[in-house]
Amino acid sequence: MKTSTILLSLVLVFQIFTACVSDEVGDLKQENEDLKERLKGYREDNQQKSESIVAFDNSIEKFGNIQDSIQLREFLVDSLQTEIRRKGRASRSDNEILNKLLDEINSFLKENTELAIGLDTTAFVNANSEKIVKLLLQSVADKQQQINSMKEELAILDKEVKGLRVKNAHLLRSSIELAEANIKLNKSARKLAIETISYSFPINMFNQVIKAKKIDNFEACYTVQENKFAGAGKKTLYVRIIMPNDQLLDATKEKLFTYNGSQIGYSMKQEIDYNNEALKSCLKWNKSTVPLVAGRYFAEYFLDGQQVGSRGFYLEH
Hints:
Elements: H1 2-87, H2 92-120, H3 127-190, E1 194-200, E2 217-224, E3 233-242, E4 256-259, E5 262-265, E6 268-274, E7 279-286, E8 295-303, E9 306-310, E10 313-315
Helix pairs in contact: 1-2, 2-3
């Protein structure tokens, strides 16, 4: 009886121990599963943070590359502005290049702004990254303000340049008109003139000019006016005498000179040496094959390719 009681007690104790051990084993298994889940979550979180760090680094690198592109274009803008200041004016091509560079800088700034905003909202945030992002955003904002100011200055400069072009066009027209007026004035001032033209014909015993058909020669006397602006030196005076029948006196194929780009005939010529002072001289006509006839004669005088005087005469029958 006692033996049976002892055995029963031992079985009961064993069952209780087994139940306790089973419970503890179950608890350990559950704890182990919990640890596995936590470890998995940690690994996933760590993976996400690692990917965020890599993405953050890549974005920072891209931001820096874009900044390098911006700085290159800023250098080109500064160089071009320096050249414009040296020349004292900006051409249309200069303005087009400046606007293109500033537009490219604006495009890069927009891209960097988007990058900086993306970094600011990234899942990976700590004190250092937050500070870096704030600096990047501030850098972009400052640069954008600088570019906007440059665009405004360029617009004002372009307006001023257009105004200067209009003024220059007016000044150019005025200069051309003034130059043309000066040319005309100089040409007029340099033009020689002949005055006090007179003619001497043979006279008879009654102190009268003999009949036209008997005149074998006559003199034409003149005075070249003083002109300090005209060219001095050797010159040829040409005289064209138009007869009453509208024919040129003593016209031949050899007696030609240039006037207004054309070759025209002359009746007489004389070489003179002009020194810018008044010069008196006479030239003589001698009868050739054509006799003089009665009527009105018209004479033109030419020097330096210009008509410088005229005066006719009348011969009686």
